[in-house]
Write a structure and sequence with these properties.
597 residues; alpha/beta; Rossmann fold; 4 domains; seven-stranded mixed sheet; 23 helices; elongated
């Protein structure tokens, strides 16, 4: 039995004041200030059981509740109802909305006719602006409609608020580039076969990505991936603002294990609970709304309205659903929904646990048929085109002094100076935001380049810890963990070199076993999976696992160069024979050390 059926039974078996108490939290969904004035006998004598108070005695809402024990309305019950309506008609009060609520059905058509005629007199006399006759069935329908509207409205509002908070992180966080590098692959699932990724056969980088992910392309589900900081959350939040679509936006980190039960209703109910959609209501109403929210939301997403899209953002930030069993449970919970589903996660998470995704998506894809393909959209590193557009928009948001500094930054793209200073960092949206903040303050040439990159690397790791993703070791002290991860990057960078023809060069990749072994030693723990390391580092998978191992690289070349120079500097070694960028970073670090002493 579902929660709505249970509620119908509770209303049907409640009488008198108990029926009023059962109805009150539901009526508060229509107006949060609804009260039960138990001590005001004059109101009860005026045919009012529940109301929204007003000092001028014209109440926004006035409700007369009739909880009967009989199976249906008989002559006695009809007389009681009509008497209560007359009491209100003869009272000094009036209202905007008058509700006659009873817990029986409307099978007695003659009774319904008499009640409606009596209510019509309230309209004619001006005692009420609107009147409503709600039996328990009609009441449930009205509550369902109201709750549905509240959920959609508040989830939309939550998405807007999330975008505003996201934009507030950086000085130019509101700058948005809709057309960015992205690749698309078709995810092919067949019973008894491994998941295959097939090229779709054409570029799509001329289409705004937020529009692309909700385009009706026939795919049941879409996975949006990309390296950290490339705009996955920004993309889906902007998609939620687009007209013509109802985006149900759920943060994966909010999908907790709180509350009993499994399945779609329970999962969506816990999501609504964790997103705190009803926190502005009193506790009784909030608990009731959260109890009903999961089944209500599931009914929306099981329907045939093509405008609804479910977005679950940041699977890597959920400690449960990022793991194999949790991911399987999530896809089982989602399989019965008919609406399009968009899941986002970091590319390094997808690549590191791809076999888990294969198992999970096989169930999601074929639950309603042997062939049900999905698609993979992967955000890429930016080119000069996106960087120039971003800086141009930032100039439009800047004050005159900031704009002057940013124009110098824009000139640096054409001259190559920007890349001399920052390597390939500007091609990464997150680090470009950091660069623009420094540039707007006129600090491009004033800060030590190596210290600048070190600061940004630490900020990136701290930013990762603000999510709920699983970490390679328990984080007792944030500063200590950041220092350990920085040391791990040093060790990996120092291992990714080779000596040829009298000089050192940087290698492109390293085995995940080497990364894990170094992490175990530095973090002092044995049970570490490579996916947890990739979730809070600037390391990335080159390709999916093969027999438990996968090749790992630094996401950006400049990160590898910096950490190698940091390793050399901390070891007291000279950078002789190393590439020029490594020497440059080492010199900056040496100068910083000299000035500090």
């Amino acid at each position: 039995m579902g929660v709505w059926e249970t509620l119908r039974g509770e209303l049907a078996t409640a009488d008198g004041r108990e029926f009023e108490r059962k109805a009150l939290p539901l009526l508060r969904l229509f107006h949060c200030d609804m009260i039960q004035p138990t001590e005001m006998k004059t109101l009860d004598r005026a045919g009012i059981d529940l109301l929204v108070w007003s000092d001028d005695f014209k109440f926004p809402w006035a409700v007369q509740c009739k909880g009967f024990k009989e199976v249906d309305l008989g002559e006695s019950q009809i007389k009681q109802i009509l008497a209560s309506i007359r009491k209100f008609a003869n009272s000094p009060y009036s209202c905007d909305h008058y509700v006659l609520l009873h817990n029986r059905t409307s099978q007695n058509r003659e009774a319904t006719k008499l009640i409606r005629e009596s209510l019509a007199h309230l309209l004619q006399s001006g005692k009420a602006s609107t009147v409503h006759l709600w039996d328990r069935q009609k009441f449930i329908v009205e509550v369902q409609s109201r709750l549905r509207g509240l959920i959609l409205e508040r989830m939309q509002s939550d998405a807007i608020s999330a975008l505003q908070q996201h934009e507030a992180i950086f000085r130019f966080g509101s700058v948005y580039i809709p057309i960015v590098p992205v690749s698309e692959k078709r995810v092919v699932m067949r019973r008894g076969e491994r998941m295959r990724l097939e090229d779709t056969g054409g570029p799509i980088d001329l289409t705004p990505i937020s529009q692309r992910i909700i385009a009706p392309v026939g795919a049941r589900w879409t996975m949006l991936t990309g390296p950290f900081g490339t705009g996955k959350t920004t993309t889906v939040l902007h998609a939620a603002q687009m007209a013509g679509h109802q985006i149900i936006y759920v943060r994966a980190e909010a999908m907790t294990d709180r509350g009993p039960g499994i399945g779609t209703n329970a999962m969506l109910g816990r999501s609504a609970d964790a997103m705190r959609l009803f926190d502005d209501y009193d506790d009784q109403t909030r608990v009731m709304a959260e109890r009903l929210a999961g089944q209500t939301l599931a009914a929306i997403l099981r329907g045939r309205d093509a405008s609804f899209v479910l977005v679950i953002d940041g699977l890597d930030e959920n400690r449960k659903y990022g793991k194999p069993n949790g991911l399987m449970q999530l896809t089982n919970d989602l399989a019965e929904l008919t609406c399009p589903i968009i899941l986002t996660t970091r590319r390094e998470h997808f690549d590191s646990v791809r076999s888990n995704f294969e198992r999970a998506f096989e169930d999601l894809s074929i639950k309603t048929g042997a062939k049900r393909d999905g698609r993979l959209l992967d955000l890429g590193i930016w080119t000069d085109r996106e960087i120039e557009k971003f800086i141009a928009q930032a100039i439009g948001h800047a004050n005159p002094q900031e704009a002057r500094h940013l124009r110098l930054l824009a000139d640096g793209i054409k001259s190559g100076e920007l890349y001399r200073l920052y390597g390939d960092l500007p091609a990464h949206p997150l680090f470009l935001q950091m660069i623009l903040e420094d540039a707007a303050r006129g600090q491009i040439a004033k800060r030590n380049r190596a210290e600048l990159v070190r600061d940004w690397m630490e900020q990136k790791i701290r930013r990762d810890l603000r999510g709920c993703r699983e970490t390679p070791a328990e984080v007792v002290d944030v500063d200590t963990f950041v220092a350990q991860m920085m040391e791990l990057h040093e060790k990996i960078a120092s291992a990714m070199i080779e000596f040829q023809d009298g000089a050192w060069s940087l290698t492109e990749e390293i085995g995940s076993d080497v990364v894990v072994e170094n992490a175990r030693r530095i973090l002092g723990t044995t049970n570490i999976d490579i996916s947890t390391i990739l979730g809070c580092s600037v390391l990335s998978a080159v390709s999916p696992r093969t027999r438990g191992l996968m090749p790992i690289k630094f996401l950006l070349r400049v990160c590898q160069e910096f950490f190698l120079s940091l390793s050399l500097h901390n070891a007291g070694e000279q950078p002789d024979g190393y590439p020029a960028p490594v020497v440059g970073f080492w010199t900056d670090l040496a100068c910083r050390s000299a000035s500090a002493t």
